[in-house]
Each structure stands twice: as structure tokens, then as C-alpha cells.
Amino acid sequence: MATELAFDDTVVRKSVDGLDFQYHEAGSGPALIMLHGSGPGVSAWSNFRHNIGFFAEHFRVVMPDLPGFGGTALPELKEVYTLAAARWIIRLLDELEIESAVFIGNSMGGAVAAEIATHYPERIERMAIMGSGGLSRSLFQTEPSEGFQRLFAFLQDPTRERMVEWINTMVFDKSLVTDELVDERMANATADGVLDSTRAIFGAMFNPTLQATYTPLWTHPDTVTTPTLMLWGREDRMLPYDQAHFANRWLPNVELHTFSGCGHWIQVERKQRFERVTLEFLTRTDD
User: Fold this and answer.
1) Model confidence over 89-132: pLDDT tens digits?
2) Is 24 noted as a catalytic residue in this protein?
3) Which of 3.40.50.1820, 3.40.920.10, 3.30.70.120, 3.20.20.150 would CATH assign to domain 2-282?
4) Which tens digit of pLDDT belongs to each residue from 150-167?
């Protein structure tokens, strides 16, 4: 079942090994997989809808809703979420007959891309990760960050006021926090079953039983050999900028691009620069 959207983008719903997946697809050429972050009411479309048109001019773009987000169902989680999500993305690539691709990952999506680079390196050619978890560790900031504290407060008590407080931690330019944006995210975050799924996802991320059988990415960053571009907003309050320096020091094939006057949503606050820098990296052949 498909519905036409902007930029000749198509939303597709497909069963993948019994899991109902939703993804957006546009363009042609080499495959680019765009993985969204983890905030309340997030989806691939809410995260990257303003960028898909640009990248579809150069790639076959596939933007999946990660398991438990948007229109994709939540499977039983028997592993830490980012690793479980990585395995489901590989199953989706199999279904789409995509042998390998370049990736863009925002926040949690960056951590999922890094899991793929670790466990399925032959499937990922290059990755650009934005304010990414997984490979990064905070050197100077408190844990959890202010952004995560605001996110967890919303999940505990999902009011409009708490949604505004969380969104304010995501951007440096507060003029972006419009009533329209807040209304959209509130509607998405409080739709039937969404809060329960989001709570289950974060529960799986921090579940001690699941963590006991999981090796965190940041403990073996030297094994992530995929060419990597890290993009970070210097004023990020969700995954603070100091986290960038750990991965930048230890990944063997990494570049760091910093955006001043920018928060966690680089693709929104620095849209054109983000697109230009990322395209140059993903299409580079001179490494």
C-alpha cells in the first residue's frame, strides 16, 4: 500500500519477517538509508522530511521508521534496542535487495548505524552520524543530559508544557519551536500505543539483564572501520558536544564537523550546510 507525498516521496508499508515496517522511498541510484532519532512522536518523516528532496536527487533514499516508532511495529525486544533495531534494518535491506548502502543516522539512528558498522560491516559503505549515541561518551557533562532528563519527564507525565521543555533542548534557535511543531509532536507522541512503545524502547536500552549480554560500542571503537563523518551542534543539550571528542579520538577512520550556534537538530537548524557537507562525504571516492 503506497501513498504519494511531497518530493515524489512514497510511504510504503511492508511485512518484513513478520514485522510491519513503514518506510519512505524516493530517488534512484546508490542506496542511502536515513535513520531517525528517538524523541517523543518521532518518525523518519518528522526527522528528515525537509532533507529527502535534496538527497533523492543523488540517491535511492530509504527512510524507515525504526521498530516501535512511526508506522513500524515494535517487536519483542530480547537485546539492547540499538542492536535489535540494527538487525531489523538489515532484514529490511534484505527485503529490498540492497546489498550495501551509505547511511545517515541522527542521534539514536547514528547508534543503530554504528551497530551495523560493527556487526554487518559489509552492508555499510560510509556513514554520516549526527549527535550520535553509542560511540560517544560524555567527558564533562552530567549523565543523563538535560535533554534526556526533559525527555524522561515527558514520558512520565506527557503534558504540552513538558513537550515544549524537551523541544527547547533540541534547538539553539528558539524561533523554531512553533505551536505547529509542538501540536504535531504532541499528536504523534500521544497517539494510541506510542507512549507504551517509547517507554518499552528506553526500558530495553537501560535494562540491566539485556545490558549484561551486550558489549557497548564505545568500549571497542577501534573496531568500527567504516569511513565515518560525525556532525555535531556545539550547543547540543541532548548529546552534548564534548561527547564528540571521544569517538573522534578512537575511531580509526573518522572526521568531525562542528556547527556553532546549533543544537541537536542539525538537519533543521543548518539544513543547507548539513546537506552539502554530508553529500560531499558520502559520495567521496578518494579515501
Assistant:
1) 999 999 999 999 999 999 999 999 999 999 999 999 999 999 99
2) no
3) 3.40.50.1820
4) 999 999 999 999 999 999
Domain ranges of the chain: 2-282
Q: In the predicted model, is pLDDT for residue 218 greater than 80?
A: yes
For the chain, give the DSSP string.
-EEE-GGG-EEEEEEETTEEEEEEEE--SSEEEEE---STT--HHHHHTTTHHHHHTTSEEEEEPPTTSTTSPPPP--S-HHHHHHHHHHHHHHHTT---EEEEEETHHHHHHHHHHHH-GGGEEEEEEES-SSS---SSS-SS-HHHHHHHHHHHS--HHHHHHHHHTT-S-GGG--HHHHHHHHHHHTSTTHHHHHHHHHHHHS-HHHHTT---GGGSGGG--S-EEEEEETT-TTTTGGGHHHHHHH-SSEEEEEETT--S-HHHHTHHHHHHHHHHHHT----
Q: Which of 24, 36, 257, 264 is catalytic?
A: 264
